[in-house]
Amino acid sequence: MSSHILNQFLSENLEDLKNKGLYNVIDPLESPNGPIIKIKGQELINLSSNNYLGLATDDRLKNAAKESVDKYGVGAGAVRTINGTLELHTRLEEKLAEFKHTEAAIAYQSGFNCNMAAISAVMDKNDAILSDELNHASIIDGCRLSRAKIIRVNHSDMDDLRAKAKEAKESGLYNKIMVITDGVFSMDGDIAKLPEIVEIAEEFDLITYVDDAHGSGVLGKGAGTVKHFGLSDKIDFQIGTLSKAIGVVGGYVAGKKDLIDWLKVRSRPFLFSTSLTPADVAASIRSIEILMESTELNERLWENGDYLKKGLKSLGFNIGDSETPITPCIIGDEVKTQQFSKRLYEEGVYAKSIVFPTVAKGTGRVRNMPSAAHTKEMLDQAISVYEKVGKELEII
Ligand SMILES: *Cc1c(COP(=O)(O)O)cnc(C)c1O
Description:
binds pyridoxal-5'-phosphate; 396 residues; globular; alpha/beta; three-stranded mixed beta sheet
C-alpha cells in the first residue's frame, strides 16, 4: 500500500501546476539532437539544444565511443578510487588540463556533479560565498551543501560585489571567502566580468570559482571564458561541462595540482558514485582533440550566431544584449511568450519559451541556441518563420 499522505501531496501539487500552466510536458525526440529534430513525426529546425558545435552527432566522436566499447566494455565498474579509473579517465584529465591551460583537472559524471563536489570539498560552515543572483541551480545547490554563509550579489554588479566582499572580510566572521559565478549566463548570453572579479578577489583575498558550462567551446577560441580574458592563472576553480559544446556528458574541474589532488580524496561524487563510462570518456577526449586542432567549428558557431541575431534584429525583435551566440528574443508577457513559442513550433521551429520564475517577471523570452551545425538555409527558414509569427502576434 502506498502512503496516503504522499498520494495526496502529489495529486494536489500536480493539479496545481497544471492549473497554473506550469506543468512541463516532455516530448521525446525521434531523431538525434542535431540541427533538425523530429518530434511526433514532424521535422523541426532545432534552436534549443546546447550542442553548440554539433559534436553530439559527429562521426569522429561516434567512432571513438564505439572503439572504446569494444576495448573496455560499457561500464567503468566502480567508483574512481576503488578500481573505476581506466587509463582513459587519466588521459581525459590530462587533455582537459592542457585544454584549460591549468596544472591539472578532474572529471566528474556531470557538470551538476562538479558543483556538488567541488564547493563543499573546500568550503564549510565557517566560510562565506559571494554568489551572483543569476547563478545556475547547481551552483546554488552546491553552495547550500557546503553550509557556508551564502551572500547573494546583484547580477554582474561590481559595486555590490566589492561592498559585500569588503563587509564579509572586515566582519572577521569567516575563515575563507569565495566568489562564485557562471562564466556565461545562459538566459541572456552575457559574460561574467571576470577581470573586475579577479581584481576584487585580489583586494579581499577571495577564492575564485567560475562555472563555464556555456563558455567552454564557445569563448576563448573554445578554451572558455577564463582564457578569453587571459586569466588562466588567476582563477582557482574552472568548472566545465562535457555535456554542452563538447557534445557528450560529464563535467570537470580544472585548476592547480594541489586543488585537484584534494578533490580526488575529498569530493563525494568522485568517491561515492561510479565514474564516467568508457564511451563517454573516449568521445570526450576526441571532442577536445578536435577543438584543440582547429577553430573551424567555433568560428562557424559565431558566424551562425551573428547571422541569426542580425536577421531577428532587423525584423524588429528585441534580442537583448547577448555577447555570445545565445540569442534571446524577448517578448515580455508570459502568456504571449508561450503562445509565440507554440506558433513557432507549429511552423517548424523548435525554440523554447523561458518565463518567470526562470527569468524576471515581464521578461519572458524565446531563447535561440544556434550551432555550428546549422546551415544558412536552416537559419533563413527559421528567420522567415519568426517574421510570419511575429507579425501574426503583433510583436513586430
Ligand atoms: C548546464 C550547466 C550545468 C550542468 O551541466 P551538466 O553537465 O548538464 O550536468 C552546470 N552549470 C552551469 C552553469 C550550466 O549551465
